Amino acid sequence: MEEDAEMLPKRIRGIKDEIVRKLCVFFDSEDFTSALEEFCLQNCSTFSGTSCGKEEASEQSLQHTELHQRYLELLEKQLDKFQEQEGIAPEAVFERCKEAVGEDEFAANFIKMLQAVYVELYIWK
C-alpha cells in the first residue's frame, strides 16, 4: 500500500500523521471503494420507492436495519484489514486520529467521519 507522495491528492498529502494519511489512502483505494460500490449495487434496489429523508419515514423496516448492519460489518472488515496491513492495534489508530484532529481541516473532517463509523460499529455490537 506504499504510495508515492507526489501521486497522492494534495488534501491527503498534507496530513502529517503517517497512519492517518495511510488510512485516508486506504479509504480512497480501489479495493475499499470497490467493496463499497459492490455492496451498494447489490442492495440499492432495496431502497427503491422508499421515502428516505422525508418526514413520513419515521421507522426503518427490518430489512433496512439488517442491511445497515451488513454495511457496518463491511466497514469493520475493511478497517480490520487496514489495521492488519499496517500492524497497528485499533487503540493506536484511535489515538493517532485523536492527535491528528488539530493538524488540518481535511484530517479533522476525515476523522469525524471515521469516528461516526466506529461509534455505529460500537452501538451495533
TrEMBL record:
<keyword id="KW-0966">Cell projection</keyword>
<feature type="domain" description="BART">
    <location>
        <begin position="16"/>
        <end position="116"/>
    </location>
</feature>
<dbReference type="GO" id="GO:0005930">
    <property type="term" value="C:axoneme"/>
</dbReference>
<dbReference type="InterPro" id="IPR042541">
    <property type="entry name" value="BART_sf"/>
</dbReference>
<dbReference type="InterPro" id="IPR023379">
    <property type="entry name" value="BART_dom"/>
</dbReference>
<protein>
    <recommendedName>
        <fullName>Cilia- and flagella-associated protein 36</fullName>
    </recommendedName>
</protein>
<keyword id="KW-0963">Cytoplasm</keyword>
<keyword id="KW-0969">Cilium</keyword>
<dbReference type="GO" id="GO:0097546">
    <property type="term" value="C:ciliary base"/>
</dbReference>
<dbReference type="Pfam" id="PF11527">
    <property type="entry name" value="ARL2_Bind_BART"/>
</dbReference>
<comment type="similarity">
    <text>Belongs to the CFAP36 family.</text>
</comment>
<dbReference type="InterPro" id="IPR038888">
    <property type="entry name" value="CFAP36"/>
</dbReference>
<keyword id="KW-0175">Coiled coil</keyword>
